[in-house]
User: Fold this.
Amino acid sequence: MGYLTSISAYIIPCFILIVLLVATYKKLPSYELFVEGGKEGIQMAFSLLPFLLGMIVSISILRSSGALEAFIELITPFLVWFGIPPEILPLALIRPISGTAALGMTTELTQHYGPDSFIGRLAATMQGSTDTTLYILTIYFGAVGIQKMRYALKVGLLADIVGISASIIIVKLVFG
Amino acid sequence: MVNLIWALMAIIGIVYALFNGTMEDVNKALFESANEAVTLSIGLISILVFWLGIMKIAQEAGILTILAKIFRPIIYRLFPEIPKDHPAIGYIVSNITANLFGLGNAATPMGLKAMEEMKKLSDSPVASRSMITFLALNTSGLTLIPTTVIAIRMQYNSLAPTEIVGTTIIVSFIATLSAILFDRLFYHTSKDKEGS
Assistant:
């Protein structure tokens, strides 16, 4: 299945190629349009900075204090009882909260247990199959100035619980 | 709810540090992470400028409309509040397609444009139904090719770096389906509450 990874490398350049070919064929001022669209990007990045900063700082306080680790240790016995490997728990808890932290943990677990171990495969599936709910809600709502998220967070976190449980079950079924 | 979670994470962290002597770590992390957030936002500028530039050309060239036409039936069912032929549809489709191929960098700018278009429709600081559905799809992370994960596995000499593609697709499909169901459920319960 190695071709799957090489496909991803072709998608973006090919998409750009198609866009530019069509624009040139239709005699559109492509460079001017690019600049016009790009200008919006600067504004967007700045408008979401405070949202991102606030969230990242709060998460880092929780992590650096050691409270998150203590909580994980506390509930480990319950998880073992349910058949959930405790090694995966930090990743499962951090996945919806911080994307960079989750990626770091996935890398660490892959390195420590080996990519072809049960934990390695589980970490990869968990990392790949769900996205960072808090980060996505923060930047998407932040960029357009939405203050009331209503039930968006509930939906995101519940789906994360389903995704994390499903990855444990599916990886157990497929790789045993 | 976000306000509560945000404040609680910091409160729990600081109180825990008070009793466990990790205050120095917290203090250090506080400023380091603030710095990290600025770097991250500045780093986003390059991706945002590039992709919003390309997407502007794509939009003018009518490519977004073509994409939107292909996925029209599904999108209309998921987003009943967005009028047909509205530009939001094109951006939503491009965002979902980019996510499917694990192109997070390309997906974010398109997603932000989609949000902007939906904001124009609702014109209010409160999240609209379509926005929540859209973010439910994004947070559940519908993926076909988890590029980053495959790269990590290759880096650590996996015998079959892509063997997790199958499990990832199944799991992300389950998560996305449940996200859509939860979204529908909460939409209807919140509507009932507002009605009574």
Notes: Chain A touches chain B through 102 residues (CB under 8 Å).
